[in-house]
């Protein structure tokens, strides 16, 4: 359905995206992941025809969109990271305004507004001014706007940032339902790996403008098939212990959270004696040291050296 071929974007002397190759099949949900500054937003801007690439091509149904972007613009829906609504208008008025931009009118527009309000769970709030909505309700209405013209492809750029768990679950279930019932193709970016685990068929991981991994969830996890993830917990971690772990040549990754350190080591290495010794030298009392099955988050840490939320 959509293919990015050797796509690059250069701003002055800096490449925001470099030689990016991706493909999107009709009816799948594809995750686009990367830490801040990885090039995700630039890639999205190019594939949606908002920004021209420096080099490379974007092909929609095997035809370049660079000279003729109209075909992809007609079938694409965009849910931006920032809320894009008129907050002094009601939910219904926002949908009517954007529906007219999509050239919907009359009975067709009215029917579509009713359908969208029901889908996003805001039928009983249709007359309320958007500025009075919670963050989650604004996010849901933002998604509703992108769905007005029945897009074949919807791009969702971190659609659950800063909202409550209930609204977040509602959005995830809605995306899943749209994909399953309407065969809608979705490109999904998120800072929450559990959302990607729940939604996505395939994943692309970017860092510093480059594509560094791609595949299904299982294929991505197999990147760590020769390594194991170990979680060390303590009530009070200290810098001496953490620095000692970082200095150990057998440990490929060290990630520190409040009361937890996650390390990645080769499968054949028995790191337990070394961890206990380092804890003793740092006068640190450990609560537990556990091996866990590699997750997408572990692979992401291994590839980028950063957590997805960094």
UniProtKB/TrEMBL annotation:
One of its GO terms (molecular function) is ATP hydrolysis activity. The keyword Transcription does not apply. PROSITE patterns: ABC_TRANSPORTER_1, ABC_TRANSPORTER_2. Residues 2-233 form the ABC transporter domain. InterPro entries: AAA+_ATPase (IPR003593), ABC_transporter-like_ATP-bd (IPR003439), ABC_transporter-like_CS (IPR017871), DrrA1/2-like_C (IPR025302), P-loop_NTPase (IPR027417). Keywords: ATP-binding, Nucleotide-binding, Transport. SMART domains: AAA. The keyword Glycoprotein does not apply. This is ABC transporter ATP-binding protein. It comes from Virgibacillus oceani. The lineage of its organism: Bacteria, Bacillati, Bacillota, Bacilli, Bacillales.
């Amino acid at each position: 359905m959509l293919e990015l071929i050797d796509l690059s974007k250069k701003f002055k002397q800096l490449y925001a995206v470099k030689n990016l190759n991706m493909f999107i099949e009709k009816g799948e949900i594809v995750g686009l992941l990367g830490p801040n500054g990885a090039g995700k937003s630039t890639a999205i801007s190019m594939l949606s025809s908002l920004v021209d690439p420096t080099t490379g091509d974007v092909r929609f149904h095997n035809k370049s969109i660079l000279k003729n972007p109209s075909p992809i613009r007609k079938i694409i829906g965009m849910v931006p990271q920032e809320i894009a609504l008129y907050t002094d208008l009601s939910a219904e008025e926002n949908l009517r305004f954007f529906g007219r931009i999509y050239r919907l009118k009359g009975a067709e527009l009215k029917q579509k507004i009713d359908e969208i309000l029901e889908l996003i769970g805001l039928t009983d709030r249709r007359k309320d001014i958007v500025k009075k909505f919670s963050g989650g309700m604004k996010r849901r209405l933002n998604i509703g706007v992108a769905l007005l013209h029945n897009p074949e492809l919807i791009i969702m750029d971190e659609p659950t940032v800063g909202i409550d768990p209930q609204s977040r679950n509602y959005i995830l279930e809605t995306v899943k339902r749209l994909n399953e019932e309407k065969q809608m193709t979705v490109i999904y970016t998120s800072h929450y790996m559990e959302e990607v685990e729940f939604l996505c068929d395939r994943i692309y991981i970017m860092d510093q403008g480059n594509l560094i991994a791609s595949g299904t969830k299982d294929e991505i996890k197999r990147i760590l098939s020769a390594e194991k993830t170990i979680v060390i917990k303590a009530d009070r971690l200290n810098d001496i212990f953490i620095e000692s772990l970082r200095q150990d040549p057998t440990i490929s990754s060290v990630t520190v959270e409040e009361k937890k350190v996650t390390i990645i080591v080769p499968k054949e290495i028995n790191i337990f004696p070394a961890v206990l010794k380092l804890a003793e030298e740092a006068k640190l009392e450990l609560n537990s040291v556990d091996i866990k099955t590699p997750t997408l988050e572990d692979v992401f840490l291994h590839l980028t050296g950063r957590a997805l939320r960094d």
